[in-house]
Amino acid sequence: MKKPLSKKIGVLFIPVSDIEKARDWYCDLLGFPDNGEIMFGTFMCC
Questions:
Q1: Tens-digit pLDDT profile for residues 5-43
Q2: 3 vs 6, 8, 11, 12, 26, CA distance in Å?
Q3: Contact yes or no for 27/16 (Cβ under 8 A)
Q4: Are 34 and 28 in contact (CB under 8 A)?
Q5: Which stretches of 1-46 are DSSP H helices?
Q6: Distance (Å, rounded) from C-alpha 25 to C-alpha 45?
Q7: Which of 30, 34, 36, 45 has the smallest number of Cβ neighbours within 10 A?
Q8: Can you give the pLDDT at residue 7?
């Protein structure tokens, strides 16, 4: 039987007042490159 729930996060939205500062902080914390593009007030990172 398949499990209906997946053990991963597909999308996470966290409202912030300074998206550039938040991007740099989260990228540093999670080890992502900080060169992701900010489009429509949303930081895209892969």
A1: 777 777 778 888 988 888 888 888 888 877 767 766 666
A2: 7, 13, 20, 22, 31
A3: no
A4: yes
A5: 19-30
A6: 13
A7: 30
A8: 79
